[in-house]
Design goal:
Layout: H1 5-17, E1 19-24, E2 31-46, E3 52-63, E4 76-79, E5 82-91, E6 96-103
Length: about 100
């Protein structure tokens, strides 16, 4: 019997570690959802020369099921009173989306 990863794991994770954020799809209305916000998520990326560099960006983990449509680039997030734009939405296929964010002016 397959495990419902979204309902079993992600729901528990957000219940324990999530905080309220406002998510606004590029073509939709604002929604209050729960997410795990990390103001300084660190990852490796390749620069134009193909050299690995360390990047530090804000990020947000959410359940895809909390949105009416899949998250996408240029959607907006307000977390801890600061506005961000989604730079990249990494959806894992198990109901989780990891959103890399850029702070807006």
């Amino acid at each position: 019997m397959p495990i419902d990863f979204d309902a079993t794991v992600l729901a528990a994770n957000l219940a324990a570690f999530g905080e309220s954020v406002t998510y606004t799809p590029a073509n939709g209305s604002p929604l209050a959802i729960s997410g795990v916000f990390d103001p300084s998520y660190t990852f490796l990326s390749l620069n134009d020369e193909g050299v690995a560099v360390t990047v530090v960006k804000p990020a947000l983990g959410i359940r895809v099921s909390s949105l009416p449509q899949a998250p996408d680039q240029d959607d907006l997030v307000t977390a801890r009173g600061i506005n961000y734009i989604v730079r990249e939405a990494r959806i894992d296929g198990h109901g989780h989306a990891h959103l890399l964010l850029n702070r807006t002016a």
